[in-house]
Automatic annotation (TrEMBL):
Record-linked Pfam families: E1-E2_ATPase, Hydrolase
Ribonucleoprotein is among the record's keywords: no
UniProt keywords, alphabetically: ATP-binding, Cell membrane, Membrane, Metal-binding, Nucleotide-binding, Transmembrane, Transmembrane helix
UniProt protein name: Cation-translocating P-type ATPase
Source organism superkingdom: Bacteria
Keyword Transmembrane: yes
PROSITE patterns attached to this UniProt entry: ATPASE_E1_E2 (PS00154)
Protein family membership: Belongs to the cation transport ATPase (P-type) (TC 3.A.3) family. Type IB subfamily.
Residues annotated as transmembrane: 55-77, 254-272, 278-304, 593-612, 618-636
Location, primary (coarse class): membrane
Recorded topology in the membrane: Multi-pass membrane protein
Species per Swiss-Prot/TrEMBL record: Nocardioides malaquae
InterPro entries: ATPase_P-typ_cyto_dom_N, ATPase_P-typ_P_site, ATPase_P-typ_TM_dom_sf, ATPase_P-typ_transduc_dom_A_sf, ATPase_P-type_domA, Cation_Transport_ATPase_IB, HAD-like_sf, HAD_sf
Length: 661
């Protein structure tokens, strides 16, 4: 498509042509000493040349009104076909009536200004959807793969699963995958919103659309085309920007009644006063254009801004609800903590055994567990050279307590103190006191029992995130009244976390269904609750909360699709930022509604008081549209605060992952 054709099909061609015609018509009138903006003028008594010029001026005004008005009329007809009385119908009637009574300038001005308003709205919506456009732009087109020992460039969509893709310096990553060889740095801004490149090496996950800032990576493809994280984000933002907020739905219903009401008011006014111009002017003045656009432009801008910062909001309704959040419930594992626990202690309680025996039995039993606490125990045993190969003959997870396994014919139980009773162990051999001692140090203790007797206690710990306390502080600053941690860990460990972070409340020793109960209790207290979790253990609580939040979910398709808010950055400060963005967006929506309503009321009053003509009314009306648009555009400014450079919290930072099984 050549530039001229592109321009002619664009939103500015109609107002540009109409504006040129109005300018020429005005020039012809002024040349004859006539003010074209003072209403219709008669050519009687004028010289023939002057009369011809003024007739040409009137004709050009009418042509301008037709050029600008036809698209408006067609839009009105399409709306009527679906039984919708739109704003376009008001303008079409007013402009047609103005032509009939000889108010050519008024007809041209109304349609021209309305066409300019449409063009501005289209341009603004394109601008506010820029986040989506930028996401689409970063989608890779080609990939370099290894086939038969040769580097081959193929379309990104033709890469096959498990194929090795080469990512060189400056290239876009064409697929989701796992690094199998090489090192490099990737700019992940398009996925997570983080602009600082992230170092990648063997075993690390990479995402399509990210850009190599240096190094050379060999990546095994795991997600291609529509299955990539970037594709899911694009789909999610598309859906979110099209979804309506409750306020927007209300306004659309309101305008469906308001528009016929304005038409009835104009008709009654015209019949009572006999002033057709007054009636037509009321039609124009009553157009709720700024009111109708006030919500969509704010929502699209807010959702677009969030997408740029790695904050995916499911839609306008969830954005509105997020602005009301008064309580935040936080899962501890991987949310307040780093999610990388390490073995810290092995306490031997059976004199016949040694440290290695306790650790080996615990690791062999945990080999059949899917729980996050199993990994640090197994890795520590391997690091100490213990033989932990093979799987248990049987594995029986005990929800909320631990695991019971049969290993080489021996029954091994690993978990918290209540597990002992469930496993039939009556004597804890001092495990209770040892577990309390370790928990008081901020560690998660797990008792190890072998064939019905306690042989020891192992403990793991996880570091509290450096920005956890800052997140809580910012949540309070954003207007959240209560920040609660929900954990299956012991009360001692939970209290240590609360003291380090500054939480308002802590609920410990919780099973997944208990977290659901706490969320419902908070809602019963009148709170609008956001639940932040991993979407697995916390699924019931996430579903029951007013807003379910998944954090650090890059690459997790289910979380992106199901969470009300998905925070793509593994960054606690993204949570208060998301709440702040939602409150700012709702504030702009309310401001825009106020601007639109005040403008309409003032103009209607001005019409009845005298002094507000059809053209002046439309000019002020379009000015209110511009003001509403400009107000919404403020949301596009980058709002993300700088991360605080807080120091690690020392010994208190070694806090635990919850042992919910």
């Amino acid at each position: 498509m050549n530039p001229l054709t592109h321009w002619l099909r664009g939103p500015w061609s109609t107002p540009a042509v109409a504006g040129l015609l109005i300018a020429v018509a005005a020039a012809l009138s002024f040349a004859q000493g006539v003010n074209p903006f003072s209403g219709g003028h008669a050519e009687v008594g004028l010289p023939s040349e002057a009369s011809t010029a003024l007739m040409a001026s009137d004709l050009l005004m009418v042509v301008a009104a037709v050029v600008a008005g036809v698209p408006i009329l067609l839009s009105a007809v399409r709306a009527l076909q679906v039984k919708n009385i739109s704003i376009d119908l008001l303008v079409s009637i007013a402009a047609s009536g103005a032509i009939v009574i000889g108010e050519y300038w008024e007809a041209a001005a109304v349609t021209f200004l309305f066409a300019v308003g449409h063009a501005l709205e289209a341009r603004t919506m394109d601008r506010t959807r820029s986040a989506l456009a930028e996401l689409v732009a970063v989608a890779p087109d080609v990939a370099v793969v290894m086939r038969d020992g040769h580097q081959v460039e193929v379309p990104a969509a033709q890469v096959t699963p498990d194929e090795i893709v080469l990512v060189k310096n400056g290239a876009k990553v064409p697929v989701d995958g796992v690094v199998v060889d090489g090192t490099g740095a990737l700019d992940q801004a398009s996925v997570t919103g983080e602009s600082i490149p992230v170092e990648k090496s063997a075993g690390d996950q990479v995402f399509a659309g990210t850009i190599s800032a240096g190094g050379f990576l060999q990546v095994r493809a795991t997600g291609i085309g529509a299955d990539t994280t970037l594709a899911r984000i694009i789909h999610r933002v598309e859906e979110a920007q099209d979804a309506k907020a409750r306020t927007q739905s209300f306004l659309e219903k309101f305008s469906a009644w308001y528009t016929p009401g304005v038409m009835a008011l104009a008709l009654v006014t015209g019949l009572v006063t006999g002033d057709v111009v007054l009636a037509l002017t009321l039609l124009v003045i009553g157009c709720p254009g700024a009111l109708v656009i006030s919500i969509p432009v704010a929502l699209v801008a807010g959702i677009g801004r969030g997408a740029k910062d790695g904050i995916l909001v499911k839609g306008g309704e969830h954005l509105e609800t997020s602005a009301k959040i008064s309580a935040v419930a936080l899962d501890k594992t991987g949310t307040l903590t780093e999610g990388a626990p390490q073995l810290t202690d092995v306490s031997v309680l059976d004199p016949a055994l040694g440290r290695a025996d306790v650790l080996r039995w615990a690791a062999r039993a945990e080999a059949g567990s899917e729980h996050p606490l199993a990994r640090p125990i197994i890795e520590a045993a391997r690091a100490e050279g213990l033989d932990v190969a093979g799987l248990p003959e049987t594995t029986e997870p005990v929800v909320g307590k631990g695991i019971v396994a049969v290993v080489d014919g021996h029954r091994v139980a690993v978990g918290n103190l209540p597990l002992l009773a469930a496993a039939g162990v009556t004597d804890d051999a001092g495990a209770g006191a040892e577990a309390d001692r370790l928990a008081a140090q901020g560690r998660t203790p797990m008792v190890v029992a072998l064939d019905g007797r306690v042989i020891g206690v192992v403990a793991v710990a996880d570091r509290l995130r450096d920005d956890a306390a800052e997140m809580v502080s910012r949540l309070h600053a954003a207007g959240v009244d209560k920040v609660v941690m929900l954990t299956g860990d012991t009360q001692l460990v939970a209290d240590a976390v609360a003291a380090a972070v500054g939480l308002d409340d802590v609920r410990a020793n919780l099973l997944p269904e208990d977290k659901l109960t706490v969320v419902r209790q908070l809602q019963a207290e009148g709170h609008t609750v956001a639940m932040v979790g991993d979407g697995v253990n916390d699924a019931p609580a996430l579903a029951a909360a007013d807003i379910g939040v998944s954090m650090g979910v890059a690459g997790t398709g289910v979380a992106i699709e199901t969470a009300d808010i998905a925070l793509m950055r593994d960054d606690l400060l993204a949570l208060p930022q998301a709440i702040d963005l939602s409150r700012s967006t709702v504030a702009v929506m309310r401001q825009n509604i106020a601007i639109a309503l005040v403008t309409v009321v003032a103009l209607v009053a001005g019409v009845f008081a005298g002094g507000v003509t059809m053209a002046i009314g439309m000019l002020v009306h379009e000015a209110s549209v511009l003001l509403v648009i400009a107000n919404a555009m403020r949301l596009l400014r980058r709002r993300r605060p700088a991360r605080p450079t807080t120091a690690p919290v020392g010994e208190a930072a070694e806090l635990t992952l919850e042992p919910v099984r």
